[in-house]
Design goal:
The structure is a single chain. This protein is an alpha/beta fold. It has a single domain, classed as SGNH hydrolase (Rossmann fold, 3-Layer(aba) Sandwich). Helices cover 48% and strands 10% of the residues. It contains 13 helices and seven strands. The strands form two sheets. The protein has a five-stranded parallel β-sheet, sandwiched between helices. Strands 6-7 form a two-stranded antiparallel sheet. Helix 12 links the parallel strand 4 and strand 5. Helix 3 packs parallel to helix 13 and helix 4 packs parallel to helix 11. The longest helix is centred in the first third of the chain and has 30 residues. The termini are far apart. The relative contact order is 0.14.
């Protein structure tokens, strides 16, 4: 390879990289101009404030995100009488996506005195919900700081590839805020009977103690980071129709250890609504609360938790 050819190749690559970055930024800038509210998108960056103080941040999986979807966000704020920012990650958001969301919150110079983390057992047992989870990244606009976060946590290369590719997708450019205001659907008896079969799909890599310890360490990092920023973490096991969940003993032991070491608060409501089928909807599995379920849980459990929480 001659020096002249190498120089031309370098110029060609540089030009194409500049064009690609320009396209990624322009498409993201176009989407960010749309007036998204927390209840209208599963993206966190599209609704991320800057230099703001919020009363409560919610983290977790789609169990937590349902407290924002379809107008539920405004209902929760009204019941609690607080300004809430829901950064839960739908689509099986594991510990790594949750850590990235909270990192970004603090990176934008935001503050909150309390974090409610809806914690599930299954997120500790697979890279699918963590480093290999590209659904949460695809929803986010392009930025070098977010890209750096993905690299920092050593996510799978496919996550980064799909994150960039999505910004050039026609569906991304034409997306609109979700203006639907209620989750009416209720779980059917057939879906309730299939709940164990559906639960198995969450534990795709079985229940590896090694995987659990890896993500348990990441969760402890999240708690330590929150305390540095003067945020008290409250762990809540969300209600489901499973009854006893796989891996729950290991999770409860971890939460007790974090309670002893960091003073976090722990509330186990996983079995609090076993006889309330009407409060669940069919969404990926039959254990996500519908709008009536979100209202019921917020009034009966979440509001008292926050009322009695540490100042």
């Amino acid at each position: 390879m001659t020096k002249q050819f190498a120089l031309k190749l370098g110029v060609f690559i540089s030009i194409n990289l500049i064009v690609l970055l320009a396209a990624l930024y322009l498409s993201s800038f176009y989407v960010q101009r749309k007036p998204y509210e927390n209840s209208q998108t599963d993206s966190n960056l599209l609704i991320m404030p800057q230099r703001s103080a919020v009363d409560l941040v919610i983290l977790g999986t789609s169990h937590g995100r349902n407290f924002a979807r379809k107008g539920n966000h405004e209902r929760v704020e009204r019941i609690l009488g607080q300004r809430v920012l829901n950064l839960s990650v739908g689509g099986g958001g594991g510990i790594i996506p949750g850590k990235i969301a909270l990192d970004t919150f603090y990176e934008n110079h935001n503050t909150t005195p309390r974090i409610v983390y809806f914690i599930d057992s299954f997120v500790f047992y697979s890279r699918m919900w963590n480093e290999e989870n590209d659904r949460f990244a695809q929803r986010e606009p392009f930025s070098l700081s977010f890209l750096n976060r993905l690299l920092q946590y050593q996510v799978d290369p496919n996550v980064i590839r799909n994150y960039c590719r999505e910004k050039l997708n026609y569906k991304w450019l034409t997306g609109k805020p979700d203006t639907d205001r209620i989750m009416r659907k209720t779980v059917t008896p057939d879906e309730v009977s299939r709940k164990r079969q559906l639960e198995d799909t969450l534990y795709v890599d079985k229940e590896s103690a090694f995987a659990f310890q890896r993500y348990a360490a990441k969760l402890e990092e999240l708690v330590a980071e929150a305390q540095i920023h003067h945020s008290n973490v409250i762990f809540v096991r969300p209600p489901t129709l499973y009854g006893k969940e796989r891996g729950e003993n290991r999770l409860l032991l971890l939460l007790e250890q974090l309670k002893q070491k960091y003073g976090v608060e722990v509330y186990d409501y996983s079995k609090s609504m076993l006889s309330y089928d009407r409060f669940y909807q069919a969404y990926e599995d039959p254990v996500h609360l519908n709008t009536n379920g979100v209202i019921y849980f917020t009034e009966r459990y979440l509001k008292p938790i926050l009322k009695n929480a540490k100042p």
